[in-house]
Write a structure and sequence with these properties.
2 domains; 35% helix; alpha/beta; 9 helices; single chain; Rossmann fold; seven-stranded mixed beta sheet; 9 strands
């Protein structure tokens, strides 16, 4: 069989199983099996496919039919122009999170804390873009921290990024110019309605097993102790959580609280700033 015929057969199987984006997924899997960039796949379509490559492609299709994410089959996900290793131990970096990255990079910072880092994509992207900054990433999952450390070394950021196993603020010391987080924000009663692909990602990174706001309450409770004067905090949120998370930050005395929408117009990031501890007295 040719590469093209094998690809068509695989695409048909995914389509008949109701997998969204079947043609795209099949092309990505075929390119991965052949060890080439997807954009060059057209050049080899008429070629005969080897037995080994055909078997490997069909095995990848079988995995996708179980709704295992394509990124887990490939072993990586691209985010903000860089490649990050991913596995079932971490959430995939998602395009929507780039909204948080862009906002974080809108002002300079020298120290950053990433709470619940997962793959490390947020922290490591910020450090790669802000070359003088150093950062600390925490996560409750030891397996997730291993993935994040691997990504740090692969990107040449091992000397500027520290990793610490922690349950939110527990054991975290010092203050930071910038604090970021993409915490579990899906309510427990919403989990059953999610796409089957999410069953392959760590549940503890998706839901707080409560109302979806528990982690924000934890973050808000400790933020003032760890945010430098006029430092910024920004968290990714679910599309209905903007007002509730804003209120949590306002209750802690944070200033300039605002909600940023994503490209689809849905609330995506809440941003706030620590007050200046020594405001200028304009009356003197």
């Amino acid at each position: 069989m040719t590469v093209q015929a094998t690809l068509i057969a695989g695409t048909k199987r995914l389509t008949e199983a109701g997998v969204d984006g079947a043609p795209r997924d099949a092309r990505l899997l075929m390119a991965h099996v052949l060890g080439m960039e997807p954009g060059r796949l057209t050049l080899v379509m008429p070629d005969e496919i080897s037995v080994d490559h055909k078997v490997a492609f069909e095995a990848a299709i079988e995995r996708r039919l179980t709704r295992e994410p394509v990124s887990h089959i490939l072993g990586y996900r691209d985010f903000y122009g860089r490649r990050f290793q991913v596995s079932s131990d971490v959430l995939d970096p998602r395009p929507e999170t780039e909204i948080l990255i862009s906002e974080a990079l809108s002002k300079p910072f020298t120290s950053v804390l990433d709470l619940g880092t997962g793959s490390g994509a947020i922290l490591l992207t910020l450090l790669a873009e802000q070359v003088l900054a150093k950062g600390l990433a925490t996560d409750l999952s030891e397996a997730a921290l291993t993935v994040a450390q691997t990504n740090a070394e692969a990107l040449g950021l091992g000397k500027r990024a520290r990793f610490q196993q922690a349950d939110w603020w527990a054991g975290v010391e010092g203050q930071f110019d910038l604090i970021v987080s993409n915490p579990p924000y899906i309510a427990a009663d919403e989990m059953a309605g999610l796409s089957p692909e999410l069953a392959h990602e760590p549940r503890m990174a998706l839901t707080d097993e409560a109302d979806g706001l528990m982690c924000y309450r934890e973050i808000a409770a400790g933020v003032r102790a760890h945010l430098a004067p006029r430092g910024r905090i920004m968290v990714e949120i679910g599309p209905t959580q903007g007002a509730a998370v804003s209120d949590l930050f306002l209750a802690q005395g944070l200033k300039a609280v605002r909600v940023i929408a994503d490209l689809d117009g849905r609330d995506r990031v809440v941003v706030a700033q620590a007050p200046n501890p020594h405001p200028r007295n304009v009356g003197k």
